[in-house]
Amino acid sequence: MERLMRDPRYDILFEPVQIGPVKTKNRFYVVPHAISMGMSSMDEMVAYRKTRAEGGWGVVCIEETMIHETSDHAPLPDPCLYNDKHIEPISRIVAAVKEHGALAGVELAHAGASGPAAYYREHPLSPTAKFPHYFYNPISARTIDKQDIADFRRWYRDAAVRAKTAGFDIIYVYCAHNLSLLQDFLDTKTNKRTDEYGGVFENRVRLLRETLCDVKDAVGDSCAVAVRFAVEDRRRVSNITAQEDGRRVVEALADVPDLWDVNVSDWPWDSGSSRFFEEGQQEPFIDFVKKVTNKPVVGVGRFTSPDAMVSQIKRGILDLIGAARPSIADPFLPNKINEGRHDDIRECIGCNACTAEVMTSVRIRCTQNPSAGEEHLMGWHPENVPPADDPDKNILVVGGGPAGLEAAHTLAKRGYQVSIADAGSEWGGRLVRERKMPRLSTWGRVVDYRVGQLQTMVNVNMYLDSMLTAEDVAGFEADHVIVASGATWRGDGVGRNHDEPIPGHELPHVFNPENILDGKLPSGDVIVYDEDYFYMATVVAERLARAGCKVTYVTTASDPAPWTLNTLEMVHVINSMNEIGIEIVVGTSIVSISEGKVVTSRLLTGAEQVRPADAVVLVTGQVSDDNLYHELVKKREAGEIASLERVGDCLGPGQIAQATRDGRKAGMQFGGLAR
Question: Are the C-beta atoms of residues 322 and 261 closer than 8 Å to each other?
Answer without folding.
Answer: yes
